[in-house]
């Protein structure tokens, strides 16, 4: 822990010690550059956080790994860290809009044949769009403006008059990923979300997208990266000001926090976009940056953890997986920690449903959430030993979950400029990633790319 006010010099300052910032620092350090990392929180990990509550380890933030997340999987291999598969044996449970509860197997919801056909057809439409648009430059597609100026809600209803099919398709983007109502983001944003996972079909397959977890918790990845960086990482050090020196930053930057001031040649801001404006810039950022940042906002989701003496649902032949498009809890999964004899469920309450229950007293909110879980898995779900709600929207240095996305028209208008440096100021975070967007894998990719950009700029400056 660093005390008193410290003045340092470095080649590069990284603002933020989440996976993006730490991977940026890791790559730059390996390339021989002197790096300082400044983190506002009293811990590393950003939106990954593993902590104990009443003696039970819980993954408060991001935790899952899918097979396509090769950047993260490669890092885990390099660090010698182990993974384990999410429990998925037995039946899943689906609750229909009319309240009908059905046990089922496979990745197809038990709906009417006509609805199943519409879900399949809409999935194919989305997969075709994903293949055409891609994750790298969706704003450059010929149909970008058209797709970015219609909400996902309304686009779906242009394609189908089967309401249950539309709400089912929307669930996998809105509730499960962007955590915003489908009328609040565009079809292009939905296509990017799917493209970042390889296909829309991948997003609908929980055995793919929620495949594995890290033994010890996802935050331990950041802890390992930070340990390798040693005293280059300064915690409890929120950055207040970034000053560019010389003509537009040609003489570098001074990065000022409450406890540490660093003079460097370059700076990488590796925090969520809604926090960019928490920093004062001298001179101010260009007009386009100011505008762009106002069109990016975080989603809202409550991640609920409920811990029981045993994973009782397994006794009943249930996997712990449940889905409902109209229920308060729209997704629930077995989230039992590696090596733990107790049973842990994780459930999600998203967007406007989260607004509604946050307006309730805590005990009433808990009762309603547990009742919703019990509708999937039985009455024993009503009485957990431990109950905890992850509320990232209330955290000063996050302000939402899982990540930031554009409002209608924003992706086509500003997407190409998201990573554009401002003189010596670069940007990195999962919110700006292509592949792995909104995930730890995307954060690592973003950090790696930012490090490459910075290293290239430093090399050109000394050539």
What does this structure look like?
With 463 residues, the chain is α/β, with parallel strands linked by helices. It has 3 domains: 151 residues, FAD/NAD(P)-binding domain (3-Layer(bba) Sandwich), CATH 3.50.50; 116 residues, Polyamine Oxidase, Chain A, domain 2 (Alpha-Beta Complex); 99 residues, Guanine Nucleotide Dissociation Inhibitor, domain 1 (Orthogonal Bundle), CATH 1.10.405.10. Helix content is 36%, strand content 23%. The protein contains 16 helices and 22 strands. Strands 1, 2, 10, 11, 12, 13, 14 and 22 form an 8-stranded mixed sheet that branches. Strands 8-7-17-18-19-16-20 form a 7-stranded mixed sheet. The protein has a 3-stranded antiparallel sheet with strand order 5-9-6, covered by helices on one side. β17 and β18 form a beta hairpin. α2 packs across α16, α3 packs across α7 and α5 runs antiparallel to α6. It is globular. The protein starts with 5 loop residues before the first strand and ends with a helix. The model has no long low-confidence stretch (mean pLDDT 97).
Brief descriptors of the model:
463 residues; alpha/beta; FAD/NAD(P)-binding domain; Polyamine Oxidase, Chain A, domain 2; Guanine Nucleotide Dissociation Inhibitor, domain 1; 3 domains; eight-stranded mixed beta sheet; seven-stranded mixed beta sheet; 16 helices; Flavin_MAO; EC 1.4.3.10; Putrescine oxidase; oxidoreductase; putrescine oxidase activity
């Amino acid at each position: 822990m660093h005390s008193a006010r410290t003045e340092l010099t470095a080649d590069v300052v990284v603002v933020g010690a989440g996976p993006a910032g730490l991977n940026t620092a890791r790559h730059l350090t390996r390339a021989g550059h002197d790096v300082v990392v400044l983190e506002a929180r009293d811990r590393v990990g950003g939106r990954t956080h593993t902590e104990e509550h009443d003696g039970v380890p819980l993954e408060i933030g991001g935790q899952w790994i899918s097979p396509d997340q090769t950047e993260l999987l490669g890092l885990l291999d390099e660090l010698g860290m182990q993974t384990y598969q999410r429990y998925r044996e037995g039946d899943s449970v689906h609750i229909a809009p009319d309240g009908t509860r059905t046990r089922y197997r496979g990745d197809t919801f038990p709906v009417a044949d006509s609805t199943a056909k519409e879900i399949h057809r809409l999935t194919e439409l989305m997969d075709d769009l994903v293949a055409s648009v891609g994750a790298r430059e969706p704003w450059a597609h010929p149909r970008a403006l058209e797709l970015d100026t219609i909400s996902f809600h309304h686009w779906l209803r242009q394609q189908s008059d089967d309401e249950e099919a539309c709400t089912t398709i929307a669930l996998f983007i809105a509730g499960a990923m962007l955590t915003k109502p489908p009328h609040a983001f565009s079809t292009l944003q939905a296509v990017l979300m799917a493209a970042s996972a390889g296909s829309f079909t991948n997003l609908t397959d929980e055995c793919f997208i929620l495949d594995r977890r890290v033994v010890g918790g996802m935050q331990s990845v950041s802890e390992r990266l930070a340990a390798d960086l040693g005293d280059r990482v300064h915690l409890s050090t929120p950055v207040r000001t970034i000053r560019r020196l010389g003509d537009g930053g040609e003489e570098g930057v001074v990065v000022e926090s409450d406890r540490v001031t660093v003079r460097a040649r370059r700076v990488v801001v590796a925090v969520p976009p809604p926090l960019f404006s928490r920093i004062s810039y001298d001179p101010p950022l260009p007009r386009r940056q100011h505008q762009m940042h106002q069109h990016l906002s975080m989603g809202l989701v409550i991640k609920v953890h409920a811990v029981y003496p045993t994973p009782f649902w397994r006794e009943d032949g249930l996997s712990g997986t449940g889905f409902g498009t109209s229920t308060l809890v729209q997704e629930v999964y077995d989230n039992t920690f590696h090596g733990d004899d107790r049973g842990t469920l994780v459930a999600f309450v998203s967007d406007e449903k989260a607004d509604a229950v946050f307006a309730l007293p805590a005990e009433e909110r808990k009762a309603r959430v547990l009742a919703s879980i019990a509708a999937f898995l039985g009455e024993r779900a009503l009485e957990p030993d431990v109950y905890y709600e992850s509320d990232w929207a209330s955290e000063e240095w996050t302000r939402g979950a899982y990540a930031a996305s554009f409002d209608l028209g924003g992706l086509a208008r500003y997407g190409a400029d998201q990573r554009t440096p401002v003189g010596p100021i670069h940007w990195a975070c999962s919110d700006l990633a292509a592949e792995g967007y909104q995930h730890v894998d995307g954060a690592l990719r973003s950090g790696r790319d930012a490090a490459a950009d910075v290293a290239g700029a430093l090399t050109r400056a000394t050539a």
